[in-house]
Amino acid sequence: MPGDATLVFIAISGIFAFSFYAVLVAGQLSLGQAGFAAIAAFGSATLAPAPSQVGDVPALLIAVAIGMSMGVLASIVLGLPTMHLRGVFLAIATLGFAEAVRILIINMESLGGAQGMPVPKVVTPAIAWVFLLLVAYWFWRQGPSRYGRALAAIREDELAARAMGIDVGRHRLQVFVTSGALAGLYGVLWAYFVRLIAPEDFSFTTAIDGLVTAVVGGSTLFVGPILGSIFLTLVPDLQRAIGIDAGWIRPFLASLLLLLVILFLPGGLASLVPRRVRMPAVTGTDLGSEAAGLETRQHPADGEPVVRLRGLSKDYGGVHAVRGVDLEVTGGEILGLIGPNGAGKTTLVNMISGLVRGTSGTVEVLGIRPGRTAVHRVAAAGVSRTFQQSRLFPRLSALENTLVGSHVLTRPTFVRRMLWLPSARRDEQRALQHAARCLRRVGLADKAAVPAKALSYGDQRRLEIARALAADPSLLILDEPAAGMNHVEAAGLSDLIGALGRDGLTILLIEHNVAMVMRTCSRIVVLNFGEVIATGSPEEVAANSEVVEAYLGSAEPEGEPR
């Protein structure tokens, strides 16, 4: 049986791993947690009242409050200037912060310098495990919430998350602050257990140990850090049990495990735990947010302006991707946008949806100015879209992908889930019902539990449409949704788009399948070299000689262009 010290180390190592898990679930790689822990450990030992005995909970709680507060403040100070960094750049910046903190403490004689500072022992196995279970409870309740789904979406595809209405910057800072608080908790518990804290307790090696524990345990399920901590903390005991005392075994094994997990088990040990995705029973396919019991939005009436473009242009150096486009899209219209490859179609819709800012001209969509407005606010206003290259959240199920699409309609549930309030369950059930209707509408109800990456290409394209529909958009932008589909699938998609248009949805369709566009759209705009060369009904466009010469071709006006 593990001794008391081993039990404490498992618990506090798990808490430290959770500080890495907090940012990994949002796709961030931070190595500043050792610095936050050092600030919390030395700060609480200096400022908190001295405990009277082992197990002095009131004194420890004061120290924990001080340490976690200092961890939060440090994470905000570091997070605000570094949140625009990604991947290895964020890791290097945060690692530099942690090393700067360690060196600063070494040179502060008031904190004991390199020799460290004595701290009374207070933490017992029971205390350590209570804190670990509280942290695990936090992440257990976070996962299925609206907030937890947003973090998972950011981890999988940040651009797609923005297009679904998720404020990526705010969420990234929030998880950074959570990481700082947990690292602060770890620092306090470490200080009040080991009796003597030194700067070397919070070195680069400490940060790597915490990261390895989180990665080996897994960042896709809340039990991952606990599994990783149990496994790696018991390695020395296993060494002694089999008569191996070499100190290099543990770091060697940890490094080997990290390599094996990255190569063969990217989800860590937690990925071995089966995940259940329950498709709620629904009837009908009415997608209206009011029918689903969600927040409602006022959609433009038929003929009311939805999109206004005036002289809109986009230049990339000497390349004019879009030049002086004037265009108006009205409520209830299905507008087709066609043209040769490189004509500027995707650039144009990227400006309409706010992903790209125009060089000149104006764009107004649903009363806001994309390009001057954050992408998530454009989505919240009622603009939803698919992408030319499918941008699903690959490790999330079809149902979870669609739930992310409803982010702009649903209310936050995390805090209410923490308190087990019935309203949180009702709101989550409404969101599930709405997502299920969207999947049923595109014919994917039987594949709700399938991860997006496991779907066929045609199903992935349909899932993107379901996710976009889940936002109850006033303007739906479809960027080559039939790409890769056969004729039967494309015909079914055309029927779906037509049905959505008849329901009053305004649709902007980019597509190379000219026959599908002619059959589906009420009006067509043709781009060539970034300029509008024709606009009108399908019949008028098909008869336009300039369009035939530039795009349709005299022999194949009804077929797929070569």
From TrEMBL:
Residues 307-554 form the ABC transporter domain. Gene3D superfamilies: P-loop containing nucleotide triphosphate hydrolases (3.40.50.300). One of its GO terms (molecular function) is ATP binding. It is a multi-pass membrane protein. It is found in: Cell membrane. The keyword Nuclease does not apply. This is Branched-chain amino acid ABC transporter ATP-binding protein/permease. Its main location: membrane. Keywords: ATP-binding, Cell membrane, Membrane, Nucleotide-binding, Transmembrane, Transmembrane helix, Transport. The keyword Glycoprotein does not apply. It comes from Occultella glacieicola. The chain crosses the membrane at residues 6-27, 34-51, 57-80, 87-106, 122-140, 173-193, 213-235, 247-269. InterPro entries: AAA+_ATPase, ABC_AA/LPS_Transport, ABC_transp_permease, ABC_transporter-like_ATP-bd, ABC_transporter-like_CS, BCA_ABC_TP_C, LivM-like, P-loop_NTPase.
